[in-house]
Design goal:
single chain, about 170 residues, alpha+beta, Aminopeptidase, seven-stranded mixed beta sheet, 4 helices, about 35% strand, globular
Length: about 170
């Protein structure tokens, strides 16, 4: 594998990010979105994240291939929650099992700490996400709860695990 670079997102990254995310929309329950996102959706999301001062990072190979991304979003629109964010991390299917998720999440958490955030919440599907749960636990997230049957995808009820990391 060529050297890995982790850096802030750029507008040129958004089509690859959309493609990575839409793969999971179509094929899995790791996201509860049921409709594929558009370039416009991602441009607006990136703008909101930047305006809130929340990190949005990408991992890429030296040749420019985007391997994954990590981002945060406000946990709640209420001002009292301004130091708490929810994280998301997605890898290109070809990037799984190579340590890229760990490198991306570690750098993301450092960036969150540097930006003044205090808590990061991971909301992870309760089906087919053992690797994501293990990754978050390795990074120091602790289990704080589970919600059962709060969503439905592919005609099946879905739940989520809640994990939290204090920065």
């Amino acid at each position: 594998m060529s050297p890995l670079s982790i850096r802030p997102v750029a507008d040129a990254d958004l089509p690859a990010i959309r493609d990575i995310y839409n793969h999971y929309v179509r094929t899995s329950t790791v996201t509860y979105d049921e409709v594929e996102s558009t370039a416009e959706t991602w441009a607006a999301k990136a703008e909101r994240i930047a305006a809130a001062g929340i990190p949005f990072l990408v991992a890429e190979r030296e040749d420019g291939e985007l391997l994954g991304y990590a981002l945060g979003q406000p946990w709640s629109p209420k001002s009292a929650y301004r130091f708490t964010i929810e994280n998301s991390i997605y890898l290109a299917p070809s990037a799984a099992g190579q340590g890229i998720g760990w490198a991306l999440l570690a750098r993301f958490l450092d960036a969150c700490r540097d930006a003044g955030f205090r808590q990061v919440i991971a909301v992870i599907s309760d089906r087919g996400t053992d690797a994501s749960i293990a990754l978050h636990r390795k990074a120091g997230f602790v289990d704080v709860g589970r919600l059962t049957e709060v969503g439905e995808k592919f005609g099946e009820p879905q739940g989520v695990f809640l994990l939290q990391k204090s920065l």
